[in-house]
Specification:
The structure is a homodimer.
Chain A (H helix, E strand, L loop, with lengths): L8 H11 L16 E4 L3 E10 L11 H18 L2 E13 L8 H15 L3 E10 L3 E10 L16 E5 L4 H12 L3 H4 L1 H8 L5 H9 L3 E7 L3 H8 L13 E4 L8 H10 L3 H7 L5 E6 L4 H7 L3 E8 L4 E3 L2 E2 L12
Helix pairs in contact in A: 2-3, 2-7, 4-6, 4-9
Chain lengths: 334, 334
């Protein structure tokens, strides 16, 4: 083994063992067998997300620790969106061929991932390593319902429901655009926006608070932008008869946005409210709540604010005008 | 959408829905929410494996259906190796940029995967799609113990134990070499070997039979070749004091190998027994069993045969000579 990185699978596994405990109450068999053995509650939630270089992140402004943190954070956010608590995860790690990217690269990546795992008491149960033509991570994460046993899914919204968002809409998009335009230096000028893109903080506490309240009818995390994800919360994408699912009237003012989102839009000549509505990867939670319960839910949920109401009419409006129609699509080639 | 393949994420999800039921008793929420919701037994086993183009498979001789089948089969094999029964899986699918690989490509890939999923009554609970610079699949699979609740892990072998293999050692290696040398035509000349490489059959029934017998002390699946995996079954890789874990004396004759393995070795001038010992991706099960129970276990386990004994001496011998020391390493750059 040279000093520029782990040279063999064995070295790599030893590096993982230095950053992640080998077993836990949830997963008692040490990593390295054919499977992990999990102690499971009767119901679990589970999600898989890919995190690929030059698709989901760039090495030019993501530090190795940012890559490890965010690959896990986007998965934790899916657990939060169900109103659940994460328990463990597995990792498929694609290691680019050729010389190691830097002396401390892999240790820093794993340390960034381990920092978020510790915050949520998450066990890395195992996974797979392979040489590959790109740097990429595939995380599968699972979790358990909160104390009430209730989980939040999409759909089930009713006209009159209050729409809530927990987290800053548009801030990640500002961070992404600033980092793409200005490179790593953007982190000094737009610190909150850059941090929101590089090290998003999944809203686990907010999700648990939402699920605990029976007045909350539906929730999801905003990963493709409000304009693209709100129709999914409303069930419009599963709509057997077009127009059968409800619509929404959004009320967003610039004052409701993070100051850096407003400042970035002013700097670049964009309308901040439209910008926030289109922004992808917010990892904010979006929920619909019975209007009678809205005050109690808003008071009990960290970072929640009302952003509109569910309507019987199927369209989606933003401050009385048709809402912008598209967000972010990782799949699209254009 | 043109006729050469799904053009959008939505088209792709519709194609997946055509091949896989959207929900099941194990996973009742239709795919498409932030997480799947799983009905879980108190103990589950879980594993993640990457399956990447030009690392784990080549499109020049894997049909699309073979790719889908094998990406899932290598994961089912990990469940079989624990003596468990698979329940469900999630899929991270990396879709190469550029024109679709062929008109029916994605449908055939999913059909191959769905055929194996149906054989084992497996639910695809969800996952992630992304454009990527390569065609790749990351499957996470989970399962439950068999009726006895017993699971098989590595280690715990004792001197005198009988070593068993279920499945053909070396046959996949013969298939790999023949396909690499002769291309798709090899499937006609070496049908069993090519099929073992392209469409391996995970040994779920054998794993369940092994786990049901208390005399079986340890098991794993042979994915990197017997020479590399047997030390892991013996616990030599976790050995705190070198020499503390037991060794093994293997007895393998050419007659114990598949006729196509022998024929390929004769054709290429290789020693068939050494060849079988080095062969990777066998997806045979390897187990250690109390010698008193060996006759009953051999009789009860489909495809099992004795291949040697565990020894107090830490070395590994093959027919009385030191065994060849290395198998297959997907991680290695050389």
């Amino acid at each position: 083994m040279d000093h520029s990185g782990p040279a063999s699978e064995q070295d790599f596994l030893a590096l993982i063992d230095r950053h992640f405990p080998g077993s836990s109450a949830h997963s008692s068999l040490p990593r390295g067998d054919d499977c992990a053995v999990l102690a499971c509650p009767p119901t679990m939630v589970l999600s898989t997300d890919l995190f690929l270089e030059d698709i989901h992140f760039r090495r030019s402004y993501f530090s190795p620790g940012d890559i490890g943190w965010k690959a896990l954070a986007v998965n934790v956010s899916d657990i939060a969106a169900m109103g659940a608590r994460p328990l463990g995860f597995s990792l498929g790690l694609m290691i680019p061929a050729g010389p190691p990217p830097g002396p401390g690269f892999w240790g820093e990546l794993l340390a960034g991932m381990a920092a978020l795992a510790r915050e949520h008491d998450l066990t890395l149960t195992g996974g797979d390593l392979s040489r590959a033509p790109l740097l990429g991570l595939c995380v599968t994460i699972w979790g358990r319902p909160g104390p009430t046993g209730r989980l939040l899914t999409r759909g089930a919204c009713r006209p009159g429901d209050v729409l809530l968002a927990c987290g800053h809409l548009g801030l990640v998009r500002a961070g992404l655009q600033a980092l793409e335009a200005e490179g790593p230096a953007a982190a000094r000028r737009w610190p909150a926006a850059a941090a929101a893109h590089l090290r998003p903080r999944p809203q686990v506490a907010a999700g648990l608070a939402l699920a605990a309240h029976p007045g909350v009818r539906a929730a999801m995390d905003v990963s493709d932008g409000l304009a693209q994800d709100l129709p999914r919360l409303l069930g419009q994408d599963r709509d057997s008869a077009p127009g059968a699912a409800p619509g929404a009237a959004l009320t967003l003012t610039p004052e409701a946005l993070h100051p850096e989102t407003r400042a970035w839009c002013e700097h670049t000549g964009q309308d901040s409210v439209t910008f926030a509505c289109l922004g992808g990867e917010d990892y904010a939670l979006l929920a619909a709540c019975d209007p009678h319960d809205a005050p109690a839910v808003l008071a009990a949920t960290p970072g929640a604010r009302a952003i509109g109401t569910v309507t019987a009419a199927p369209g989606i409006t933003l401050n009385g005008q048709p809402a912008p129609a598209r967000g972010f699509d990782h799949f699209s080639t254009t």
